[in-house]
Amino acid sequence: MNIDSMQFWTFFFLILTFGMYMTIAWRSRVKETKEFYVASQGVPTIANGAAVAADWMSAASFIGMAGMIAFLGSDGSVYLMGWTGGYVLLALLLAPYLRKWGKFTVPEFVGDRYNDTVRVVAAICAIVISFTYVVGQMTGGGVVFARFLGLEAHWAVIVAAVVIFFYAVLGGMKGITYTQVAQYAVLITAYLIPAVAVSQQIGGFPVPQVTYGTILAELDGLRTDFGLDRFTEAFSGRDGGQLDVFLVTLSLMLGTAGLPHVIIRFYTTKTVRGARFSAFWALFFISLLYLTAPAVGAFTKLNLLQGAEGATADELPTWIEPWADAGYVTLNVDDGTIDSVSNVAASGADLIVSNDILVLASPEISGLPAPIIGLMAAGGMAAALSTAAGLLLVISSAASHDIYFRMISKEAASEKTQMMVGRLAMTAAVIIAIFAGLNPPAFVAQVVAFAFGLAASTFFPILILGIFWKKANSKGAAAGMLTGLVFSSSYMIYTLELFGTQANDHILNISPEGIGALGAVLNFAVTVVVSNLTRPPSLEVQEMVESIRYPAPQQLKAAGKI
Amino acid sequence: MSDVTHEGSSGAAPPPENSWRQRYWKKNLRLMVVLLAIWFTVSFGFGIILIEPLNNIVILGFPLGLWFAQQGSIYTFVILILVYALWMDRIDNEFGVSERNGTGEKP
C-alpha cells in the first residue's frame, strides 16, 4: 500500500465530505432561536430517523465497538443490546409523549412537569452527560487524523476539535439535521463496504451476518491456541459474570433512553405519529451498523490471530506496521514468535492491539484500494462530527435556556442574546473538551461509563414517572434524581481512578458501568415514596399529563371531545 | 403489568364523555406491556439468563444464545418498534384520532 496515495484519498474524502456538510449547513442556516433548536418540526420521518442514527452512532460505535467485541467475545453483547434495546423503551415509553408535550428539551419538560429547581438540576445533569460524551468524539476524531494524516496525537485531537466546533456553531438544529442525514450516508457506506469485502474474502460469502457464524468454530480454535477464552463462551470477557452483564446491559439501555441529545430529536417531527415512526427508522438505520459490528470484530480478530500465530515480528500482516508507527500497536517480541495477543497495555502480551484500530484497519486487512481507506477515515469523522454537534446543541440549550435565563438574567432576553449565550456555552465546552481529550484514553472510556450511568440513574426514572404517574411531584423528582446522581457517581468515583481518586474493588462484582441500573431503581423508589408522602401536583399539571396520552386534541368521528 | 395499569388509572376520574380516552389508553397500555414482555424475554431472557443452555444448540455455526445476544435481539427490537408504530396507527384510526393527514395540532 502506497502511503502517499492513502493520504491523498483521505484528504480527498475528508475535504469532499466537509464541503458537503458545510454547504448543507449553510443553505439551511437559521436565524431564530426556535429553529436553532428544533427545526420547526418540519423534518420528514425517514430523514429524522437517519439524523437520529447519525447523532447516536458516535466515534465509539463506529471506530471502537467492533474492536471491543473482538476482544470481549460473547460479552460484547452488552454494547450491542444495551445501545439498541434502549430504543424500544424510548419508542414505547418516551418519544410519543414527550413529542405531544411539545417542548424543546428534557430540562424544559421536567421544568413544566415538576418545577424550576428540578429543571436546573436536570440542565446540569444534561451538560455533564453531554460534555463527557463530547470528549469521546474528539479523541475518536483524533485517532483518524493521527493515523491517516500522520499528525501527532495531541495535534490530531486539537484539529478534530476545531473542525467540530466550527461547524456545530455555524448551523443549528435544522442545519444539523440535514447534515446528519448526509453523515449517516457517509458513515454507513464506509462501514459496510469493507465489511462486505472482508466477509467475501474470509468466508466466500458477501453477507457479514451469515459469514460470522461460519468462522466462529475456527476463531474459537485459534483463541484456544493463544490461551484465550473461546469467543463464544458467555460471561468470560468481563470479570463480573452473569449479574454484571445483566446490569451493564440494563444501564446502557436505560441510559440510551434517557440521553438528552437523542430525546431532543423527537421534537423535530410534525406529529406524535411521526415520533413513533422516527424511532423505528432510527433503530432500523442503527441496526445496519450494529448487526455488522460483531461480524467485523470477529473477522479482524481471526485475521489478526491467523497472521500472528507463531509468526516473528517480520512475518506479521503488512497492515499492522503503520499502526505500530502511529502508536496503536505494540510489539514485545523478545523470543522470536508471538504467543499472546491482548488489547490491554499492562498485560505484557507479545502483541498489543488497540480496540480503536480494528474497524479503521479493515479495508487494509482485506486489501481494498486506497479510496476505500480514505472513505473509512471520512466515515469515522462523520460519526464523530454528527454526535458532537448534537451534544454541543444540548449543552448550549441547557446553558442558555435552562440555566442562564432562569438563574442569572431573569428579564426576557432578545433572540440575539439567547443565541449568543448558547454559542458561548458551546465554545467553552469545546475548549474544556480539548484539555480533557488530551488526557490518556483510559480516562475517556471511564467517563463514557459515567455518562450512561448518570443518564440512567437521573433522567430515565423521572421521565417515565412524569409521563405515566400523575401523582409524581416535584419534591419526589428532585429527591429521586439527587439520590440516583449521588449513589451512582459515588460508586463510580469509588471504583474508578477518576480525578485522582484511588480505585477500589468492585462490590459484589458489580462494575461501574452497571451501577446506573441500580441507581435508576433507587431513583424510582425514592420518587414514588417522596411523592406519596407529599402533596400531589396541581390539577392543572395532572390534566397536562392526562392530555399527552392522546395524540390528537379531539376525536374526529366518534362522539365526545375534550 | 398490574402496576402500570394501576398507575395509569390512578388519576382523577375523567368525566363520562371522556370514556373513549380511558379505553384508548387501556389499549395503548396493553400493547405496550405485551411488546415490553417480548423485549425483555428476547434480550435479557435468551441473550443473558438462558444464554448458556441455548449455546448448546448450534445453527449455521452460531451457538443460539450468542446469536440472540448479538444478532437476534437487535432484529427483534427493530420489529417491535415497527409493530408498535403500525398498531398505534390502527388504534388511532379506531378512535378517530389519526394524525395521518397532519391533523395533529401544532404547538
TrEMBL record, chain B:
<dbReference type="InterPro" id="IPR019886">
    <property type="entry name" value="Na_symporter_ssu"/>
</dbReference>
<feature type="transmembrane region" description="Helical">
    <location>
        <begin position="31"/>
        <end position="51"/>
    </location>
</feature>
<keyword id="KW-1133">Transmembrane helix</keyword>
<protein>
    <submittedName>
        <fullName>DUF4212 domain-containing protein</fullName>
    </submittedName>
</protein>
<feature type="domain" description="Sodium symporter small subunit">
    <location>
        <begin position="21"/>
        <end position="97"/>
    </location>
</feature>
<feature type="transmembrane region" description="Helical">
    <location>
        <begin position="57"/>
        <end position="87"/>
    </location>
</feature>
<keyword id="KW-0472">Membrane</keyword>
<dbReference type="Pfam" id="PF13937">
    <property type="entry name" value="DUF4212"/>
</dbReference>
<keyword id="KW-0812">Transmembrane</keyword>
